[in-house]
Amino acid sequence: MNENDLYQDYDVAPNLQFKTIDIIRMGGLKCSCVIEASYLDGLFEAPNRITKAAVELSFSVANSEILVLGKVQGQREVQCARCLKMTLQPFAEEFTESYSTKQEIIDIMYLVRQTIALSEEIRFLCKPDCKGLCPMCGQDLNVAPCKCQPENLSPFAALKGKFK
Question: Which of 59, 88, 117, 120 is most enclosed, with most CB atoms within 10 A?
């Protein structure tokens, strides 16, 4: 029997909770599934949100532990920190966790949510060279330049002329 043929018929619960006894009885488990976006609501501050996600899992049984190797991937809709446009960004993160065989339920959704939340960047950009908005008129500088004259934004500009 080929390793890829194992566990094809396992029905993964949408909340990603697995019965430990099932995993032990099968001697391990490999599965993948799409995660409903509603299970990932509230991970990021609005307007950022997860638009789609999927998870691949591999459970291995040892003496008194179950080792879980997983990969969650998908895409999130995020607001650019410079021009404020919404953009889609892919993500892919791996995780590893071990659980006691004495637990009745292994809650992978908690682990998936935690992994995605920890992968959040401090600020998102629609593209690395995003020019942002003009601080004077609000024109999107990626679309067209504006006619504003740049101000001297130096913090020392107010001291000019004070000392002679």
Answer: 59
